[in-house]
Specification:
The chain is an alpha/beta fold and 357 residues long. The protein is built from eleven helices and 18 strands.
Length: 357
């Protein structure tokens, strides 16, 4: 019996991919599966999405894992490579490389591989993280065009810093910086992340790069995935492992921060920060037991949480608990915890087994 598991709905993943295609029908889709597919499992997620046009990872190790598990589709290495050995391995794996700094151009200029590489030149239009600044773009473009052998393809991408903001002003500024750089190049572009796919069609371009939306979760603070036509792909489920009766006035958990205001019944659930739940989730944040909302009582510990079931129908040891998923949105727990859904999903620890259904 598995006390806790992350159940991944492959049909929901595919439905979200189709919903993204409907929002950006003229664009190809690069499914972002970095960070263990946002906690959903790198390999099972990628293999569940055979219709994606490409997959994006951050690190070379992620790409190696996908190739070792039989993924034949295009893989884009978002952070690129950082030495000659990595470049040789990326070429052997037939990866697309993002180029965002002069060191990477120098590596390519010295490289004598068996085949030309597909490259993506990244321009920094306002994120100020990775990419060539606008005034550096043309020189970088010409150096890449002059490689011998010439790149198999040469495309351009940028990343939006504020696509989730309703007024779109920062995104419009980034697009204005990008437009003169690519004018006349007739080059394939990738601009849009999840928020831009859903809210700013002017960013869709040749390729879109959905991350959070692919997993059925909203990138917008005021909305949930279901409101955007998305289906949550992960249900984090656990188990009631003990029941407790506490008298009025008794404290519960580390630090005794929760005090019973009446005689209360508690369910002890096998889930804690060892499984990826933030320790800062406060008392009162809900879980679902038997389909009923039960507020947490006391601090999250390494392996357990306590939920107040005083007002619920009878609960038994062995009952399943939904921490987030199809009936309790991860967005709600993120708000309660003072964080974002990305952190909760990516934080699911390795000891939580992933089950693709």
């Amino acid at each position: 019996m598995r006390l806790i598991r992350a159940r991944i709905d492959s049909a929901a993943l595919r439905a979200n991919l189709q919903a993204i295609r409907a929002r950006a029908p003229a664009s190809r889709v690069m499914a972002v599966v970095k960070a263990n597919a946002y906690g959903h499992g790198l390999v099972p997620t990628a293999l569940a999405l055979p219709d994606a046009d490409a997959f994006a990872v951050a690190r070379l190790e992620e790409a190696i894992t996908l190739r070792d598990n039989g993924l034949k589709r295009r893989i884009v290495l978002l952070e690129g490579v950082f030495d000659a050995a990595q470049l040789a391995q990326a070429a052997q794996l037939e990866l697309d490389l993002v180029v965002h700094q002069p060191l990477q151009i120098e590596l390519l200029e010295r490289f004598r591989g068996p085949r030309p590489l597909p490259l993506w030149l990244k321009v920094d239009t306002g994120m100020n993280r990775l990419g060539f600044r606008p005034e550096e773009f043309r020189a970088a473009w010409e150096r890449l065009r002059g490689l011998q052998p010439a790149p198999l393809q040469l495309r351009v991408l940028t990343h939006l810093a504020c696509a989730d903001e309703a007024d779109g002003g920062a995104t419009a500024e980034q697009l204005e910086r990008l437009r003169p750089l690519v004018a006349g190049l007739e080059v394939e572009l990738s601009i849009a992340n999840s928020a831009a796919i859903l809210a700013q069609p002017s960013t869709h371009a040749s390729w879109v790069r959905p991350g959070l939306a692919l997993y059925g979760v909203s990138p917008f603070a005021a909305q949930r995935g279901a409101q955007l036509g998305l289906r949550p792909a992960m249900t984090l489920e656990s188990t009631v492992i003990a029941l407790r009766e506490v008298a009025s006035g008794e404290r519960v958990g580390y630090g005794g921060v929760w005090r019973a205001q009446r005689a209360s019944r508690l369910a002890i659930v096998a889930a804690g920060y060892g499984d990826g739940l933030p320790r800062g989730i406060p008392s009162g944040a809900p879980v679902l037991i038997g389909g009923h909302r039960a507020p947490l009582a006391g601090r999250v510990s390494m392996d357990m949480i306590a939920a107040d079931i005083t007002d619920l129908p009878p609960v038994s040891v062995g009952d399943r608990v939904e921490i987030w998923g199809s009936r309790l949105a991860v967005e709600e727990l993120a708000v309660a915890a003072g964080t974002i859904p990305y952190e909760l999903l990516c934080g699911v620890s390795q000891r939580v087994p992933i089950e693709l259904v």
